[in-house]
């Protein structure tokens, strides 16, 4: 069979043409798609712009409202501050007035209390003065009485001292005043020239302490008013035998100096004697 039964294969230019046509179609399709996308983007941008403008408008309105609210609140605070200041000033004025009133009340109260205390002090001083005057008068009366008694006592003492006698003791030494009874003994003590130690000595085998010496009664004869004693002084015993009442019985001790000790017996009873020991005031050891 011949060539007419089969078509001839396309040439190379036909393929190129087909490819070019396909590319053009694809390009057109891409442009259409890009156009559509661009239009869509424009629409979205317009919507976005409108939304942004709306937000800005709303924000401005909100900001305006907020500013107005803040201003009103600030004005309210300013008004409240002013009111508070006026109240504070008013309260300060009132407090000052109340403080002044209270101070005046305190001053009046203090003045009243001071006046009351002054009156009480004056009353107490008057009472004290009256009591003192009464006591002074009583003391003056007592002093007058004491002076009178003292004068009488001194006069009596002088009279009693004048009645006292000075005699020579058993050692031949002139004695001081001799008391023969209780009244004269009291006067002798008041005279104060010598130390006076009274004793009531009973008969005993053991010495009895009288002042700084010891005495032992050996014999007592009330009928003859005589007695015998032993004197223990400076570790030495001296017997004074058959002495009579109111006779100064004298002896020396080391610390008595040049003045003798004296024993005077005023009463002689059965197995006892009553009298006193007289010692020098200034006792200095003899050389």
Architecture blueprint of SSEs:
Layout: H1 12-163, E1 165-168, E2 174-178, H2 182-191, E3 194-202, E4 208-210, E5 213-221, E6 226-233, E7 236-244, E8 249-251, E9 261-269, E10 272-280
Summarize, please.
The longest helix has 152 residues, at 12-163. The chain contains two helices and ten strands. It has helices at 12-163, 182-191; strands spanning 165-168, 174-178, 194-202, 208-210, 213-221, 226-233, 236-244, 249-251, 261-269, 272-280.
> Quaternary status of these chains?
single chain
Average pLDDT across residues?
Answer: 83
Low-confidence stretches: none
Secondary structure tally: strands = 10
Tally of DSSP helical segments: 2
Keywords:
single chain, 287 residues, alpha+beta, 2 domains, four-stranded antiparallel β-sheet, 10 strands
Structure explained in plain terms:
The protein is of the alpha+beta class and 287 residues long. It has two domains: 128 residues; 115 residues, Tick-borne Encephalitis virus Glycoprotein, domain 1, CATH 2.60.98. The chain contains two helices and ten strands; from the N terminus they run H-E-E-H-E-E-E-E-E-E-E-E. The strands form three sheets. A four-stranded antiparallel β-sheet has the order 3-10-9-8, covered by helices on one side. A hairpin with a 2-residue loop joins strand 4 and strand 5. Helix 1 crosses helix 2. The mean pLDDT is 83.
